[in-house]
Structure formats: structure tokens, C-alpha cells
Amino acid sequence: MKIGAVVILYKPELNEAKALLDNLAQQVDALCIVDNSPESTYSQLALAGYENQIFFHFPDNIGIASAQNVGLQHLLKDGCDFGLLFDQDSQFDIGFVAKLAELFQKSRQHYLPRLVALGPSLMCSYTKKIVRPKIQTEIEQFDDISSVPQIIASGMMIDLHWLQQIGLKDDALFIDGVDHEWCWRARKHGFSVGLALDICMSHKLGDGRRRFAGITYKVGAPVRLYYQFRNIFLLSRRSYVPLYWKFRNFAVMPLRIFTNCVLLPDRMMRLRYMLQGIIDGMLNRSGPIKASAKRP
Considering only CA atoms, which of 233, 231, 176, 179 is closest in space to residue 206? Predict the structure, then answer.
């Protein structure tokens, strides 16, 4: 069984990204790095020292979906059976990949014969706590794995043999919602998505944390609000997207607008991105944000 990994970079913190790549290079058979940064990080990360690696640089930022597709297609051409996806800020122990692969095979034999993707439990780098979904419940739980509606992309192990049937990541979304949409689409085709209960990975969720009225919430870059709000409208048109996801996102939209316009810095910029996202979502516009909409 040949296992490859795809790591997506965008203006990474170099020591953090280097630690991830050094760790990962010891655990996989093929390593594909896709850099969406304006300036290439190849020399800074000393990537020439890795065996069986390939580096792609897209200075104009093709988005996370297209970047993942570049990596997945390379792994397929390289003869990999399984592909792992990682963001630049994920961290895990030696033995992580082997444990995930072992659980993948075991789960298909005993629990979920149509398992197509498996991800680790996530520990938030900010709170140091394991993140468990509060609304979307598990579909079925076994000893060391749960069947779930979706998992995030970072740490996701995919059986590449089924990629052609399910399809690649949806580059129309560009960034937000890409991982969940693919999982929902895979489930529409009759496959299962799993969450490993005893395999953990540290990951940054958002750019930081704030508290208001006793509630802790994630803080992200203002431009991400454009994609988050727009993609709610784009995904809500699709029949295979869960109803709870549609209801929850539309229900909390007024609260998110309030939070970003009152409690966070760059209020007017955030408001403009949210409004533009709502407008473009209602008009069914997709892909990267237009250059005219990027101006503060």
C-alpha cells in the first residue's frame, strides 16, 4: 500500500511548516507540496532535502480546492493508493500516518465497508481541547471510529481508488466549505466518512479566539468572510447538503454580522466582505473573489 500526502501552503510560518514537513516526510511514500504564496517558500523550507517530493507554486493563489486537486492528481499519477491532505499548521506525532492507515483497513473489514475517507480527532491549538461537533451528531459509533457526516480536510486520508467516482474537490467554492462539501458528495454516492476517536492531531481553527457574553468564537481574516457567506448560499442550493447545516448557517448569520461589525477590528472592511458575499451568493457567483471586491 503506497501512501502519499499533499500539504497546502499559504504564507506559512516557516518553523511551523518545516516541522510538519520534516515529520511527514518520514511517514509517507510521496510528498506533494502546493504553495499558494505570492513568493515561493521552496528554498526557505529546504525542500530539496526530501526524497520523492514535488513542489508546485501558484503565486496568484488558485485556492485550496484547486491546490488539493493538483496534489491529489499527482498522487494518483504516482501510483498512490491513499492520499492525505494537510494544512500548513497541523501537527501530529510520529506513527500518525501508520495508525490512521491501520484503522482505515480495520474499519473497512469490520465496521464500514464503504469507508472512503478517515480523519483524526482534532485538538484546537488555541484551547488545547479536543473539538467535538455540538450539532451534527455521529451517524454511528464503534470502538475506535465514528461514522460522521463530514470531517475537515487537514489530516483527511482518502482512498484514491474511488476519487474518479466521487470527483475532485469543488474549485468553484475556492476555500470555505470545500472539505465538507466533498464529504457530503461522497456520502451521496453511498460511501462512509470516518472520524478516528483515539488518533489525535493538533490544528489551528481560525486565526484566534475571542469571548463575548461567555461564548468563545473563532476569529478569521476579513476576506474569509466573503467566501464563508457566499458559499452558504451556493451550498444551500444543493440537495445533498444536510438540512441542519443550511438551517444553522442561515440562523446564525445575523449574529455573525453583529459580531464582526461590533466586536472585531476592521469593522467596515468585514461588513463589506460579508455583504459582497451575500450578494454574490444570491447571484450564484463562484470562484475567487473579483479584484474589484478586494479593495478595502
Answer: 176
